[in-house]
Design a protein that fits this description.
alpha+beta, 11-stranded antiparallel beta sheet, 25 helices, 46% helix, 14% strand, disordered N terminus
């Protein structure tokens, strides 16, 4: 390859070349290049102190929180800091009109007042192991993609199960990396007794709500405090009053010194899913399919929920958690599609793919195997485009839509033969759905989503219920829904009880809601089957493309896409320019809270208790103030994060906690697809603000005494 071609490739791939602030790195696979980059940015902690499966290390303080967020252990007695929105469901479950912890916050004054959460767990990573060679031994070049998947999945499960067979307190999980080209085993220990200790009022933890979500500048105190409990031997145990606080092998120290622009910052947590190496065809499909379906359908559903939440306190409490979860990804989809267009992400992808295609054509060994790679990807994405889009709307409108359907599907999927603990948890989850379920609201949502789905898809993708609506109910969706809810037995806990007690007079499959659930499953299966051939070819093509890219860029320091495993990202604290003529600073203070309260007078999303405003106005921030005497609230860095990183620990160069990551920024919402170094920022809540709220507003000084606070002043 001549110098001119090499220069062109370098230029075309410049948007995706590694920068010090890009990448979600596997701690067990930090190469020399990555370690050097961290040191050059200012890391003072020895790299072996970050992750060491044989000795206590910083990673030992970081947990996967509930499988959907991250957290960090900050005391010898098992205190865990995570985000308010990560603990939101737990706070909501313990709330009532009489004890409105969502509105007023919660403080456990002693250990006996800490509230258990049966469905919640935390997960510690003990070690990782590259098992790629063992897994790939089960594959053959002659296999179809489905045959390969079966062979790979079987061996992944076997390797994971071997861990639990050797030690019942451990969990082994094998995950795929680089689009199915590498496989790593992670060994975990889970703790199931996790109790709520402290939650700020939502006026702190959710300040700004949907308006400010994914937006900088931010003034949200997005944090919660939980405690892990274990048995007397410090081993995992189900909830028991006899359990004692867990003793972690490593406790994260907390910095009271804060940060400055350019300060080294690293994030440890469990990011969910990124698709940085997805083809342009896949990005285009996501925009018009899953993203657009979320935007359209959830927008309809949430408008109904929000209207009733604003009208009635009991509905606000019942629907707060599910509204929060739904709206988070709804707004994320809006921002992602907008950023993909404005930042020319598709064009960047296509340019990079053109370069890879040229390399394949110029390399005989690659040309023989991959000459038709891109034409195959393009053709197969095109073949499944319409039905894939319909499936996205189907999932949002029905499977993730009316709660009556969700109940029906859970009942159909109920496994009485599972372990007794799992059966109990599933039953509690079903009963919780009823506790947070309003029939009149759900009926209105059902009617609205029936109309929305019909308006967005071809008639070929309408399930049988639409025939009933048109023939038996004169095309009136509300009449069909009224009849369905009147006739089904599962709209109330009593109907569920008849099912659970195996009542012989209740014929489950004849219940209209259950029958509807079956019809929907069959329709979804048929639609999915129609895409099976194209989907297999796409899976194969994306895997081959990812592997070819790594062969072409042999000197490139590739990091794998996020997949809910523990990752390290690093960079520096710093502001950014969102558009021409504007510059955003790298931190915010309580002054901005007053400004937003004034600007949004009458808006409940920016309402805050007078006693909190008085506390801020006093200026008495003590040791939690910065060097100017101000109370910082949030800060930003160029650390690489995504969903699942919520609650991730943000550490300084010495491994001291600076705060918790809780959001990304609006201008770079395409970050799951392409990292944008000039724009992409990780938003964190300042740990000093958290401590100030705990001590001064919550008057929970005993919690502060548990922490390891470091300050040079």
């Amino acid at each position: 390859m001549n110098i001119r071609i090499i220069a062109i490739i370098a230029l075309l791939f410049s948007s995706s070349l590694l920068r010090a602030d890009e990448g979600m790195w596997l701690l067990g696979n930090l190469n020399k290049q990555t370690r050097q980059a961290m040191k050059e940015l200012g890391l003072q902690l020895p790299v072996e102190k970050l992750y060491n499966p044989k000795k206590p290390c910083l990673a030992d303080a970081v947990v996967s929180f509930g499988g959907f967020c991250s957290g960090v252990v900050v005391s010898d007695d098992g205190l865990v800091f995570t985000n308010h929105h990560c603990g939101f469901s737990s706070v909501q479950q313990h709330s009532s009109v009489e004890h409105d912890y969502l509105k007023d916050g919660f403080v456990a004054r002693n250990r006996n007042e800490e509230l258990p959460n049966p469905e919640l767990y935390v997960r510690f990573l003990l070690r990782t192991e590259n098992v790629t060679k063992r897994v790939l031994k089960a594959t053959k070049p002659s296999m179809t993609e489905s045959e390969r998947r079966v062979a790979v999945d079987s061996l992944m499960l076997l390797i994971g199960n071997e861990v639990g067979d050797r030690d019942s307190t451990l969990v082994g999980v094998v995950d795929t990396y680089y689009a199915g080209n590498e496989f790593w085993l992670s060994v975990y220990r889970d703790f199931n007794d996790v109790r709520l200790v402290f939650a700020p009022p939502s006026s702190i933890g959710k300040f700004g709500w949907d308006t400010d979500n994914w937006v900088w500048p931010r003034h949200t105190g997005d944090f919660c405090v939980f405690r892990i409990y274990a048995d007397k031997n410090n081993q995992p145990a189900n909830y028991s009053p006899d359990n004692i606080p867990y003793k972690a092998s490593y406790v994260a120290p907390i910095s009271l010194d804060g940060y400055k622009e350019g300060s080294f910052c690293m994030t440890l947590g469990y990011p969910g899913q990124t698709e940085r190496f997805l083809s342009s065809f896949g990005v285009e499909e996501r925009m018009g399919g899953m993203n657009q379906a979320m935007i359209d359908v959830r927008g309809v559903k949430q408008a109904i929920w929000k209207r009733e939440m604003d009208r009635r306190p009991d509905i606000r409490i019942k629907y707060a958690s599910k509204y929060d979860e739904s709206s988070n990804y709804w707004k994320n989809s809006i921002g992602m599609n907008k950023a993909i267009r404005e930042l020319s992400v598709l064009e960047k992808k296509r340019t990079a793919e053109a370069t890879l295609r040229q390399w394949i054509q110029r390399t005989p060994s690659e040309r023989e195997k991959l000459l038709h790679l891109f034409s195959s990807l393009e053709l197969n994405y095109k073949d499944r485009r319409e039905v894939n889009r319909a499936m996205a709307y189907f999932g949002e409108s029905f499977i993730n839509g009316p709660e009556l359907i969700q109940l029906a599907l859970e009942i159909l999927n109920f496994d009485f033969e599972a372990e007794s603990q799992q059966v109990t948890l599933r039953l509690e989850k079903l009963l919780d759905k009823y506790a947070n379920f309003d029939l009149s609201i759900d009926k209105e949502v059902f009617v609205a989503l029936l109309k929305e789905y019909r308006s967005k898809v071809d008639t070929r993708y309408l399930p049988p219920l639409y025939q009933a609506i048109d023939s038996a109910y004169g095309g009136k969706e509300h009449a069909y829904v009224d009849s369905l809810y009147a006739q089904t037995q599962i709209a109330t806990p009593r109907g569920l009880q008849r099912f659970l007690e195996r009542d012989t007079t209740y014929h489950l499959l004849e219940d209209p809601a259950i029958a509807l659930g079956i019809d929907l499953i069959v329709k979804y299966y048929d639609m999915n089957h129609a895409t099976s051939t194209a989907s297999e070819e796409i899976e194969r093509g994306e895997r081959l493309m990812s592997d070819a890219l790594r062969r072409m860029k042999v000197d490139y320091n590739f990091y794998p896409d996020a997949n809910s495993t523990l990752r390290l990202s690093f960079g520096t604290v710093g502001g950014y320019s969102p558009f021409d003529g504007a510059a955003y600073d790298y931190y915010t203070t309580v002054k901005g809270i007053f400004e937003k309260v004034q600007e949004h007078q009458g808006d409940p999303d920016f309402a805050i208790q007078p006693e909190l405003l008085s506390l801020f106005a006093s200026g008495n921030f003590g040791r939690y103030a910065d060097e100017k005497g101000e109370m910082n609230v949030c800060f930003i860095s160029n650390n690489d994060i995504t969903g699942g990183n919520s609650g991730s620990a943000m550490f300084n160069a010495r491994g001291e906690l600076l705060g918790l990551a809780f959001d990304g920024n609006w201008e770079a919402m395409s970050g799951d697809i392409v990292f944008e170094p000039d724009l992409q920022r990780c938003i964190g809540v300042d740990v000093r603000y958290m401590l100030f709220i705990i001590e001064k507003y919550g008057k929970a000084g005993e919690l502060i005494k548990e922490l390891k606070l470091n300050a040079s002043k």
